[in-house]
Batch of 4 targets.
Target 1
Amino acid sequence: MMKTFLPNLDALTLPQQVAQMVVVRASGFLFDHEIQYPVWEPPAARLRHWVEKLGVGGVILLGASAGEIALRTQQLQSWAAVPLLICADVEEGVGQRFSGATWFPPPMSIAEIAKRDLPLACHYAEQMGRITAEESLAIGLNWLLSPTVDVNNNPDNPVINVRAFGETPEIVSELAVSFIRGAHQHPILTTAKHFPGHGDTSIDSHLELPVILHDRDRLEKIEFPPFKAAISAGVDAVMSAHLQIPALDPNYPGTLSQKVLTDELRHNLGFEGLVTTDALVMGAITNRYGTEEACVLAVEAGTDILMMPLEPEKAITAVCAAVESGRISRDRIQASVERIWRAKQKACAIEIPSKEGHAWENPPEPVLQTSNLTDSIAQPEALSINADLLRQSMRFHHPNPSRLASLKSVGRNLVIVDSILDCDFLGRTAPAIAFPTQFGFTQVEIVDRHTPYIDLNNRDSSPTLLQLFIRGNPFRGIAGLTQAAQDWFTYLLNTDRLFAIALYGSPYVLDRFIPSLPSDVPYVFSYGQMRSSQAIALETLFQSRTS
């Protein structure tokens, strides 16, 4: 059992205390030339300066393989005088962000199972939490930015969508608590997001500030219950939402609102853990407030963690200046750092100090054990549970077993995605590309938003397997059908060339297709877009041909 330890905060200067409240973004790749988002991800020298000299409290990672992340987290911790909180948005398992690890379908897939078997759904949610925690710890992550506890009751929501555990507060609460219970079988931090609730908006807060006009009665019935359930389950952190609810605060968005973070979350809901902002690079905040003022307002509002400010040094300087001017009290900063220290005692294994100094001054050297890594990532049990979840949440329609067997000529395998440049789940050997060829669909065509306009009236008459990869697209503000997908679907219907559909991602797109889909056209729907999902879905779609 880890011993409780709250250090003497006087040992840290004000800038060091404020730096502990900052979590910076970094690439998971070790080499600068591999950085994918240079606006947000610093080169190694600057990152090391932030960790080693500024003493930031944590790092959020994106990109690379699970093996490389294990090296990256070891490197980061070796630079830090105070052990770091290292986090990632692994709402769908570690493999969602870091290749090689287990990649689950999105949480709404479990809600699909809950409609007919809630105990089974809770079992899957708990296993997802447990496996995600195990694989995260194996590669050096100690803070899960999950579960999402927003109630997605708006099909046009581009930012939450299938990331939610469902469309009702009852189901979301049950599944989120199960996920937390599974994750807490291990010493890792969990996060309920996005308070006070981001499920009913059609505006993407990555781009603009959504405004939700619900009254308090509605919030108490729909948005708040999953957060209350997560808090009761011992969730370690709550992430704020970049949206404005005038019924709670007519002046500020939730992330910058004392009425939301302190009055509602701390006082009314009784939450005592970490409060973190959502990413402060998102347009809903930066477009209106900029880095420095946003960080000061967030601390005034009651946040403990400033997640991913675009300019960390300016953020630290601005908050320090606000303290020196009397705008923010020193007690307010110390209260946050104390909460951060309690979190680090759990996640970073900080022990009681010895006579040689404080424990955070001499953290143990992290050692990468290759055998432990390969014995902990994507194990047969995890892959089996993942496959079961994919099958249990899948929808399919086989009206005519002989239809797919009736292909008389070369068929077109038409794959429509948002951006092929960002599709790690597609490639020459991906099931969506390779599997249909054995059934005659050898004419592969991939269309995305970068594809020049095509006059469909001049297309050939090949029978077509239509495969659509469509789900919410943060930073693009898209929740459903692209124009290209709609145009192709209409064309294939009108010319009687639509042989079958495989849809991966959003159930709301399927719901819009079904009313106009001829009853004799088979389809399969999977919440997942990864290769394992493609394989299971296509095997199901073509099972009448192979049986």
Target 2
Amino acid sequence: MNQEPSTPEHEADASEPRGNTGTDWGRLVSTALVGTARRTVPTPPGLPERSENAAALLDLAVVETVRAKAGYVAHTATPIDPDPSDPLPEIGEAQAHRLDVILAGRPELLAEWLDLLVRSGRCVPRTRIPDLLDRAARDRGLRPAVAAAVGTRGVWLAGFNKPWSFITAEPMPGDAFDREAWEQGTPERRRRALRALRAQDPAAGRDLIRKAWPNESRGEARRDLLETLEPTLGPEDEPLLDQALDDGNASVRGRALSLLVGLPEGAHAHRLRGYLRRRLRVVPDAPNPVHLENVDPDDPELLRDLALVAAKTRARAKDPRPQDEHRERHQVLITHTPLDVWTELLDTTPGGVLTRVGEDDLLREAIIDAVGLRGDATWARAVLDHPTIGLPRMVGGSVHDLQRQRIRQLLAPLPVDERCERIRAVIGRTKGKITLCQVLTALATPWTRELSADVVEVLSRSTDRRSPTDTHAHQRLCVIAAEYMPPEHLDLLPENSPNEEEAHEHLRLRDTLRFRLDMHKELS
């Protein structure tokens, strides 16, 4: 009876390879010992078929030796589905090279380049997608533009790197509701699916939010659900937002209140009007003719409608913060109440309202914030044109961050040409280039040719190089001009700086505008 030869004792030692590769090294050794004539040798993966078993065995031994030295561990993996094709054509080499230059040394121009790319109807090459996702991971403001630029390929790639997962929540053209993504997807995919449904069928999206709300234990998740209402917000959404005012999470209540501002004819807005009417007192001959009574800190209905938590019972006399809380309640009530209540109660125009409350700093500042929040062009013009609180007075001194934000909000509802004309009107009143820089950044829009010419004229003025403040202001103004001046206004700048000491900043400004001009031409 034929028997298989026994394995020699030393074969066990030989079967332990140097560096565990997870492969059957011992089988190779035993095959060599018993002879290739008595045991079949498989063809090594990736190598051509060999007619001689001995040669095939040696080939396989070489492969396994190299794997062992490289630290290879045998494993299996699920094949990765290829990235989806993008229907948009990719940009050419010249545009891709310009993107590389921007990423390497001109990051301030990336948002503008992405906007031009999206409007051109093209997409970025695959090799640039990781760099763009990395930038957007660090800068939230870039995310919508990056999402539009990287498209479905970017979403596919984000599945392999968690820090890029934010991109899966960004809406994209052609999005449709995906029930599987809503029921089983990540929070980002669920948000995107819900946005798509809201765009197609607001009522169906609202019903999904109602059903999901009780099961969302995290305040951030509930706030995200509310965020999806904003693009298609309507009167039918008010009951859901009103319910959110009772939420235990302050950020959820605050977001619900900010969305209710967009429903000026809703029940919540009418309740705020009622609160204000009951507390407003007008005494025509008094130094401050308009007076707003204190908001009762123990009025639960009012505090709820203002998204504020009721004050805890405490000894008010010993509390150092009652005045701060009083101002906060006043601020929230005035800011979120529709502006028409003021013209109704005082029977005057928006400008007249501002004049009547002009001596009360709390009322005046809160009404200005309400105008900025609501984006009402008529009220914005009334504030900007007011002789004592208007734009010339705002820029008459140092424009701090809060003031700059207010100017930006007041200018936002106006046409671009009007915004630029208003800035031109106050340029001569600004005290130096520092204030001009602050006002121009509040404009936050490309300039008209006339405004560009005015800024070029300011840049041509001599700077006191002995003053670090003046030097910094001039450099800052050049940076702002490089960002906001339309590149086709390059011809307004002389070839050489009129002031030799400022030649470097001048040439850098010209270089940036020329770079942007080429960028626009490439993506036009």
Target 3
Amino acid sequence: MADGDHPHLRRPGRRVSGAVPGRDRRARRVEARGGRPRVERDGPRVAVVGGGIAGLSAATVLAERGVRVVVFERDAQLGGRLAGWGTRLADGSEATMSRGFHAFFRQYYNLRALLRRTDPGLHGLTGLADYPLRHRDGGQDSFARVPRTPPLSALGFVAQSPSFGWRDLGRMNPRAALPLLDVGVPGVYEALDGVSASEFLASIRFPEAAHHLAFEVFSRSFFADPATLSAAELVLMFHIYFLGSSEGLLFDVPREPFPQALWDPLARYLGGLGVDVRTGTPVREVRPVGEDRVEVVAGAAVEQFDGVVLALDTAGLRAVAGASPRLVGPAWRASVARLRTAPPFLVSRLWLSRPVAGGRHGFLGTSGFGDLDNVSVLDRWEGEAHRWALRSGGSVVELHAYAVDPAERRGDVEERLVGRLREVYPETVHAAVVDVRHEWREDCPLFTVGGYRDRPGVRTGDARVVVAGDLVRTGLPVALMERAATSGFLAANALLERWGVRGETLWTVPDRGRSAAGRLLAGLGRRTPGMP
């Protein structure tokens, strides 16, 4: 599908000339420690446990510098929470199913650096011109015309939002909102990790009608209830996407399903570097051996390595740590055991016999529609879905429900979600469901109030063992997929330091407020007793 084939598609932001990886001239460069460009021939051997974004990021940097890498992935395919797998539909069509829509924001400098290994121009991504938020009362917020550079972004949004106006801005508690003006890591956690996201918004008198802006756009990105989510994570999200970066709030999506667009090309690239990728191979235990090596137990096989990257989801990391009684140390294993997983979420994908209306956006956030959190019309931007829609005359629609009550009967939630689609897009009432897939998952990290200290850092205290993933503390202003990629690069860099090899240069959004006046006010607030 060409860029001009649909009004809601446009090309992703291109890399600009000069030093910075995007349009934000204040983006922060994080240099790796210096050293040799590569390891010696037949150098160290590293096990990367987990084949998602974090593990593949670590494997890429290590292999590019001559390290012999083995990737162990439990599932049959790479990609982690962005994996995809084939399925046959009721009409005989072959399709690719996944765990659902993901937004590739322009602030994801390190994830984009990984993807550029196989797609230097990022032609495999396409931009969505808007992702409106639909209210049950009929109002709709849009980001299409919001300026990208703060503070114009905030002012521009207020000027056009039906749910957050100038009067609402005037009613807010400015002193309680000061932390939003100067966000740094780990300072934001030191100040706000003990407060929930919902408590923080109440303290700044965020208007009730606009709560969806924070909850649906930011809190729900963590698949979490705002009452259990750390306010530090919420405020960091505001900084990354809205108040601290001039990359803007619009994002890109892959033109084809995840395997074809992302992981198959990267697997071929890693294979060319000599990486041994073993899918369908879960790791059970990791054992320190002597002072310098580790043993990795995968099935009945036991192999020795010079280092290991634990790039696992929360449950996977808990399982490996719990089964590895000599790994790192008892305090570290105990903190891993306390990590929690977010509530279940549902991805329902429907292949419909009729198209949705022509003006529907590729992605729509929803507020007030019960379980339904957003609707994606995949045939607006994904090639495989678009080709199916052309052949059938129908449409491919995906629905998300986040933070579902575990006590709910899953069949009831699935049925309600389809009912909500027909309420949001009434034309789908007359469409037959050619086929449907309901995917339930419960494997996203939960960033609980006060839980920051228990989250592992990249370095564990044992130089042989490093951790990567979106649950990891990086010391940098990153989140979600970008935290996974960044932590993978950092994990590789930590191992490369042991062997005197230079690692990967990283980039992040600014690690401070953009306005000197705002930083001054925030600093005064931090020094005032009783301030958040």
Target 4
Amino acid sequence: MSKRILIVGGVAGGASVAARARRLDEKAEIMMFEKGPHVSFSNCSLPFYLSRVVDDSNALVLMSPEQFQKQYRIEARVNSEVTKINRKEKKITVRNLNTGEEYEETYDTLVLSPGAVPVLPKSIEGIDRPNVFTVRNVVDIRKLDEYLSERGIQDVAVVGGGFIGVEVTENLRVAGRNVSLVEALDQIMAPFDYDMAQILHKEMLDHGVNLILSDGVKKIGEDSIELQSGRKVAAEAVVMAIGVRPETGLAKDAGLEIGETGGIRVNHDYLTSDPDIYAVGDAIEVYNRLTRKPSRLALAGPAQRQARAAADHMYGIPHNNKGVIGSSVVRIFDLNAASTGLNEKSAKAAGIPCDFAYVIPADKVGLMPGSHPLHFKLLYEYPTGRILGAQAVGKGEADKRIDVIAAMITMGATLEDLKELELCYAPLFGTAKDAVNHAALVGLNLLYGRFRQVPVTKVRELVERNEFIVDVREKNEFDRGHLINAVNIPLSGLRDRLDEIPKDRPVYLHCRSSQRSYNAVMALQNLGYDNVVNISGSYLGICCYEYYQDRVTGRKKIVTEYNFT
């Protein structure tokens, strides 16, 4: 007998289950039910319609019901909401949203892929106003775009600095609108540590975004929003993007187990607590292979892999569930920002002892066109050297480096493995010692105690305490901007000016690139100095870290001039 597979929800999870099941079984009866009008669309591309990078909203729709039927013999019913699961009789109740008609369908196997829904706090006064929008599907993005265009709206507030909020902000700004991005936390983009996020904050300011951190929304009005601080911000339209919650109502009503993170609990093969019901995508709870704890991960790549694994299991094909690590990338104006695995915050929260290497090498040979600095932070476990995660920000191929680290994490690699990793090299594509190899070498030096470092987050404290800081750049570089209390002793003249460097107090060294200050540290240590410390991140890193807070708070600068070149 042919198998009857019913799937609730389309897009990355549900549609991928359907397509894989069809490839495995030509005789199966496969039906998808989607509450909205589109069963398959590129939700990750939605914000780019606002700037017309995607010039036609119809292009966001990847497959129509007719295409599913013709190409795969899969019946896709849109505007069809599944309202109930009868597990005992193996039936679902479906409501046709066009007619209001309700009917039942029986299943042999049921797959839940309902996704996640935007969080809209009822505590915010005016949250139900008609000028408040979310971005979840093609209908949402068309509705927002039409509202802005038809009314000629220029002032827009985006609430939430995650992936959706940041991408909506960028595309609205590219479209020429005045955009305020409001984030209740002290940084945007939670996958990045606070020091790396400062680079992104500067990019927002440089492109005219009114970035407001550490402040939440209290009230939404017709032409403005009021923040918790009492500040008012001009906004004729508001896009809420503070996060999503898994769509678990159907599963809860059916008595399926819900995990501790609020997602549907599934086993190794994505089966729920019912042996005839699978669940995949944003609605489920997944296993984080690094923290060894359950978590949630709303990303399309993992959803597609879960979908394939679930379909395979239906037909007895084994699957090795390795868990997730969380790899992602986003473009923010001229910068690419990518991350994978754990950051400092999440590692510490999980109780994993860790340290990091922060380097800013060129992403390709410096004399080549298009060479730019790449801010690269590599996190590793102490004392094993096991690689835990990485973050990369720059104008070049940040994703390429993070993909390398994602692969290393998946293989359980250490700093020693990464040091020896052989990668492609040509001057137009990278450097002979790539950023990832460079970071591994720095990490090993730290791990084995060959030298000590202090992060950019502590430099202000050093300056305010008037610690002895040596800038080992050449004088012409020093004159273009330096720490206000730094002493300029270039690496080229270091050995001739040792009498200027004290041995009875800590000495902190920095430069334009970590390579020179590292050489200076090693030279001094070999010459009998036992209290020298390298400032991680160099002068460029210091400027990037300090800039945003200096601008928005008006605090005293610790540099004579910012230098971002």
